[in-house]
Amino acid sequence: MTALAWFELIASGLITGGVYALVGLGLNLQYGLMRILNIAHGEFLMLGAFLTWMAATVWGLNPLWMIPVSFCGLMALGIGIHRLTFKRLAATSPDLDVFEARGLMVAFGLMFLVQNFAQVVWGADLRGYDFAADPVRLPGGAQFAGNKLLLLVLSLLFSAALIVVLRLTLWGKGVRALMQSPAGAQLVGIDTQRLHPLMFGAGLGLSGVAGCLLSTAYTISPSMGEPYTVTALIVITLGGFGHMGGALFAGLALGVIEAVGMHFTNPSLKSLLSYAVFIGALLWKPNGLFNKRK
Q1: pTM tops 0.90, yes or no
Q2: Is the pLDDT of residue 294 over 50?
Q3: How far apart are CA 78 and CA 72, in angstroms?
Q4: Which of these, 121, 184, 233, 238, could form a disulfide with 250 (CB 3.0-4.6 Å)?
């Protein structure tokens, strides 16, 4: 393979990996902070994708306008879901293990509820629209569809913005403190009752943004969310629960590994490649590649 072919192959993997990272960061906020294993996470990505598709095809809006709408709308929905379900579970569960088990059952219910809602409203057919699909030539001769380059740039921008907020703001430091030691954070006065619903909502908001971006470059369907939920679980496990920089790196790396692996083997082996990396990393570092805990 030529250097140009390698560049195009790795870049295509980074485009996919950028979405993986964004979805994984949202799930990491929920599980790393509150131990809510939200396996319905991908279904809310699907909602963001369909809302953007409707805005572009029915209302004639630029899909990029739906990025803040998707984030704010799904964040508000996430806050409401947390207050109605997970907050009540936390108050009635005798310990963390029971809360995680009950939360998983609630997430299962949300997954089927949202997926069937989408099928009733939009049907089961594939949907799509044209947006910025013209090829863009980069220095060196490589070219990519404009919407996929935009997908990569915005995914990395939102991922980096979240990491910066968590590292540099007082609000973000409170979130990190809760991830490291919930009991210690409460002892120094951090308001968990306020941060938990906000973080759950922010996680769903990021999934909505990912769905919005995906709809600009790929076809969408009511069943599209489940593979992204599985991928997000792989990403946060590889990067380490609660480690945002690790999730970003793991998402990008997984996208590149899939792209290179499929090129030299078979596209149908994509899931096999992901699970092989996942199992290998778990055997090597059970706590994640970037988690220093033994």
Answers
A1: yes
A2: no
A3: 10
A4: 238
